[in-house]
């Protein structure tokens, strides 16, 4: 095969020579070898060629390509000490600057270098990882068709190069993993520029560029996860992505919500219609309520939003490829390690919710079972004494688990009513068992035995007692959403609701300790459904205390935390699937035949409607709004994950 | 193959109290993190372990860190290639400049042209499929594939190509990257399969035409290792046993 070399520095311009591949390779080898003897001329020309990057004429492109290919053939002659300027020129090259065939030649050279000597391996992997993100000037072009095309070209080459290297260097994925995790761009908070940069425009530009770079970087990480290399390092990469989501999540404060009366937080923020928000000219009026105060906060929210959308898409592709179950196990592990222990995570948990929605029968149930297990197992007294670390961690995990479970069972529309009832039954049974075990036993000493581990360290009875109350509260919360299903099926009524009555009437009196708005809602629904016959015990009008409920919890007020309350992020919440998977209000149940039976029972429907309205969450109108405008079909929800709330499913 | 050894190790492992809920899993995780990395204490790469926990109770160490120590007895399979050792590996890539080899499925080794003895010459062979129909089809569509190989000048059938298992000499070993630079200069190094086949023929016919160099080689091997080279093919011999404390 002959390669035409139109303009090599040493050639006369009017002549065209034909060289074979091996001739060019030996020429390059000579140039490399000449450095050792002190003659740097041809070597410097070689390095000069590498520095050509922008606005290349066709002959320069051909020269660059030929040189790269020749270098790939002469990698064994490259010496890390003598040819450092050449190496640094190569490692500074960005595939984003070149047309496909030059990028091909560059990728080939990098692969050859990486496998030629262990010393180059990390440098080559680092160079490929740096190609995850385009150079700054290219960021704006990414949305244009040719920018997208270039992105596809570069990324496919980068990932193909990883695969080739991994074929020849079996442990390369492990090194790659470290490089990928370390190379992740960090988000700059606006405050960090405070002293250095005064120009707002510049600061915003930098923040926006970094955010774009992070999105592409995470996209690449997910691509690695789904590739062959993912078999080895996929779980760690996925965990790193979730960690990044949590990091961004905690950057966005709860302050905006907590400043208001927290009891309103659960329901009233849901009354707002996103339609109004979409139409409002002022973007930070309600589009993102939590961080409307600062622009930097807003950009973080936007970034988190984009990353969540990417993760959702990745989960969908996993489902299509049939490996969701495997990915879900990783997510579950990651959830337990980071999300569950993070203090009031706001958005990151929706990754779990989405994965569950994609496969409610397996993933959905697995998630609920894991949370229930976590609570039931953790609340058993440990035979051996735990260290201080263990007990506090245990208490927090337990409370988080119950919060997540309650919120999940309430909001996950895709869960079959039978699954929810079995899960609730498990919780009620546990609760009943606990109450029976401690019936009439108001002697604090008995309780002290039960939770002496926690008490000894914290100086006050926290974990078990609090979790118990929280837990009943959680049941109530679920019932606020799912009451009708259970009321109308006699079997469920006897199994679930009657034992629950005993629990609620127990001396520990959970209704006095729980969040007033939930108790109120629960009692209203219970009354409407004529649930409890004797209502004397439940006279709380005016007594719906705040003292007790406030007192219990202290700083770690997890009792007001319902993680799957509507996602406030713009794109995520506009996601068709996520919206449809949500139990917004009891509308579905109302539309079913249950409505009739309520009429027959003579229930005051006005009162009930009022109750339901108060429970409304995500606006219906938003379901017309497409998932980031990317999906064209109006309803992409697979029929098998449609919510199943009819009694037939029991 | 040389370089593999089994070690009886007495280890003490320090665990964070947060790991106290599942101690055995944490121990396995700690040891797992050592796998496929060069460890100076072991003077080799840990390939496998079998652990036996001695302590039923652990004591919290006094001092700033509330870690607790556990004594273990572990059986470790170690791999420590040293210069001038003979290793075996599979050729995964071959070019005029170099032969790339993977050893034990995880180490990568490279043998550059200058480390390949003159007996082997680089050649490319045009491949056609053995089936006649496919052959015809290949001719029709002009399909051909080039296979790169190193062929011995003295034995026409002795070739090294992608997929061949070869025995080579270690020149140097990079402990951080786990990269071996190998050599095919010495006479003991070549394709294992060819060698085995050659030896089979040799034992059946005792050919007098066999070259004296090969005889010498066979003699060396038998004395050195105390076993026939046949056993090398798929069997890992763990010759050394040592103790690490």
From TrEMBL, chain A:
TM spans (from-to): none
Any matching Pfam family: RRN3
Chain spans, region Disordered: 628-650
One of the protein's GO biological processes: transcription initiation at RNA polymerase I promoter
GO CC annotation terms, alphabetical: nucleus
KW Heme (keyword) present: no
Alphabetized GO MF terms: RNA polymerase I core binding; RNA polymerase I general transcription initiation factor activity; translation initiation factor activity
Keywords: Initiation factor, Protein biosynthesis
Entry keyword annotation includes Protein biosynthesis: yes
Domain of life of the source: Eukaryota
Xref: InterPro entries: RNA_pol_I_trans_ini_fac_RRN3 (IPR007991)
Family note: Belongs to the RRN3 family.
Protein's UniProt name: RNA polymerase I-specific transcription initiation factor RRN3-like isoform X1
From TrEMBL, chain B:
Region (Disordered): 220-245
Subcellular location: Nucleus
Domain of life, source organism: Eukaryota
GO cellular component term of the entry, any: RNA polymerase I complex
Sorted UniProt keywords: DNA-directed RNA polymerase, Membrane, Nucleus, Transcription, Transmembrane, Transmembrane helix
GO biological process: DNA-templated transcription initiation; transcription elongation by RNA polymerase I
Residues passing through the membrane, by range: 122-143
Gene3D superfamilies assigned: 2.40.50.1060, RNA polymerase Rpb7-like, N-terminal domain (3.30.1490.120)
InterPro entries xref list: RNA_pol_Rpb7-like_N_sf (IPR036898), Rpb7-like (IPR045113)
Task performed by this protein: DNA-dependent RNA polymerase which catalyzes the transcription of DNA into RNA using the four ribonucleoside triphosphates as substrates.
Name under which the protein is recorded: DNA-directed RNA polymerase subunit
Annotated organism of origin: Gossypium australe
């Amino acid at each position: 095969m002959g390669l035409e070399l139109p303009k090599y520095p040493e050639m006369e311009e009017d002549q065209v020579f034909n060289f074979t591949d091996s001739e060019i390779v030996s020429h390059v080898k000579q140039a490399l070898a000449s450095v050792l003897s002190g003659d740097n001329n041809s070597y410097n020309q070689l390095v000069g060629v590498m520095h050509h990057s922008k606005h290349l004429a066709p002959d320069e492109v051909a020269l660059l390509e030929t040189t790269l290919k020749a270098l790939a053939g002469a990698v064994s002659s490259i010496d890390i000490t003598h040819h450092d300027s050449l190496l640094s020129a190569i490692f500074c090259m960005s595939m984003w600057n070149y047309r496909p065939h030059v990028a091909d030649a560059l990728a080939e050279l990098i692969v050859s270098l990486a496998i030629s000597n262990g010393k180059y391996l990390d440098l080559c992997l680092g160079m490929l990882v740096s190609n995850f993100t385009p150079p700054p000037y290219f960021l704006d072009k990414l949305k244009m068709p040719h920018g997208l095309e270039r992105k596809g070209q570069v990324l496919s080459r980068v990932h193909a190069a990883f695969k080739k290297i991994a074929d020849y260097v079996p442990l390369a994925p492990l090194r790659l993993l470290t490089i990928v995790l370390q190379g992740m761009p960090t988000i700059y908070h606006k405050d960090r520029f405070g002293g250095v940069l005064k120009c707002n425009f510049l600061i915003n530009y930098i923040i926006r560029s970094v955010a774009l770079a992070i999105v592409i970087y995470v996209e690449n990480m997910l691509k690695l996860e789904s590739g062959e290399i993912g078999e080895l390092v996929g779980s760690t990469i996925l965990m790193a992505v979730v960690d990044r989501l949590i990091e961004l999540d905690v950057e966005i404060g709860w302050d905006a919500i907590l400043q208001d009366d927290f009891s309103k937080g659960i329901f009233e923020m849901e009354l707002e219609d996103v339609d109004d928000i979409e139409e409002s000219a002022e973007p930070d009026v309600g589009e993102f309520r939590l961080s409307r105060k600062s622009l930097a906060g807003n950009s973080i929210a936007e970034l988190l939003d984009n990353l969540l959308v990417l993760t959702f898409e990745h989960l969908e592709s996993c489902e299509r490829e049939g490996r969701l179950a495997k990915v879900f196990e990783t997510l579950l592990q990651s959830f337990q390690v980071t999300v569950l222990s993070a203090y009031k995570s706001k958005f990151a948990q929706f990754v779990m919710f989405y994965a569950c929605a994609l496969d409610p029968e397996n993933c959905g149930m697995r998630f609920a079972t894991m949370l229930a297990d976590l609570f039931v197992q953790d609340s058993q007294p440990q035979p051996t004494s735990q260290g201080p670390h263990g007990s506090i961690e245990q208490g927090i995990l337990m409370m988080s688990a119950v919060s997540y479970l309650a919120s999940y069972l309430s909001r996950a529309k895709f869960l079959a009513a039978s699954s929810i009832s079995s899960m609730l039954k498990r919780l009620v049974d546990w609760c009943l068992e606990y109450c029976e075990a401690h019936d009439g036993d108001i002697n604090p000493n008995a309780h002290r035995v039960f939770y002496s581990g926690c008490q000894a360290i914290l100086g006050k009875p926290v974990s078990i007692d609090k979790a118990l109350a929280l837990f009943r509260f959680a049941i109530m919360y679920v019932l606020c959403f799912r009451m009708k299903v259970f009321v109308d099926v006699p079997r469920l009524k006897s199994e679930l609701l009657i034992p629950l009555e005993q629990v609620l009437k127990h001396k520990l009196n959970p209704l006095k300790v729980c969040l007033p708005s939930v108790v109120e809602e629960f009692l209203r629904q219970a009354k409407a459904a004529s649930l409890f016959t004797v209502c004397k015990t439940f006279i709380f009008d005016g007594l719906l205390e705040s003292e007790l409920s406030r007192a219990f919890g202290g700083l770690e007020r997890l009792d007001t935390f319902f993680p799957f309350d509507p996602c406030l992020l713009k794109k995520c919440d506009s996601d068709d699937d996520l919206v449809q998977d949500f139990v917004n209000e009891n509308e579905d149940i109302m539309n079913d035949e249950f409505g009739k039976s309520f009429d027959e029972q003579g229930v005051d429907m006005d009162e009930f409607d009022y109750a339901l309205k108060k429970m409304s969450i995500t606006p219906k109108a938003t379901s017309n709004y497409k998932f980031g405008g990317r999906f064209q079909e109006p309803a992409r929800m697979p029929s098998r994950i449609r919510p199943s709330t009819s009694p037939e499913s029991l | 193959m040389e370089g593999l050894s089994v070690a009886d190790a007495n280890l003490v492992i320090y665990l964070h109290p947060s790991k106290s809920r599942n101690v055995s899993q944490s121990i396995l995780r700690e040891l797992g993190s050592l796998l496929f990395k060069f460890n100076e204490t072991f003077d080799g790469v840990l390939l496998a372990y079998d652990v036996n926990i001695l302590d039923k109770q652990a004591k919290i160490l006094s001092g700033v860190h509330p870690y607790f120590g556990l004594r273990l007895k572990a059986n470790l399979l170690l791999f420590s290639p040293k210069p001038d050792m003979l290793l075996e590996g599979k050729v995964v890539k071959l070019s005029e400049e170099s032969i790339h080899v993977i050893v034990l499925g995880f180490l990568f080794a490279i043998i550059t042209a200058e480390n390949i003895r003159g007996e082997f010459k680089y050649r490319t062979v045009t491949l056609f499929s053995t089936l006649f129909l496919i052959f015809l089809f290949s001719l029709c569509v002009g399909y051909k594939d080039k296979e790169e190989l190193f062929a011995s000048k003295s034995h026409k059938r002795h070739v090294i190509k992608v997929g061949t298992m070869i025995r080579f000499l270690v020149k140097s070993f990079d402990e951080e990257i786990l990269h071996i630079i190998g050599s095919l200069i010495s006479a003991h190094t070549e394709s294992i399969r060819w060698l085995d086949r050659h030896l089979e023929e040799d034992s059946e016919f005792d050919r007098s035409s066999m070259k004296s160099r090969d005889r010498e080689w066979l003699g060396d091997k038998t004395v050195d290792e105390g076993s026939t080279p046949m056993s090398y093919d798929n069997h890992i011999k763990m010759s050394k046993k040592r103790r690490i404390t």
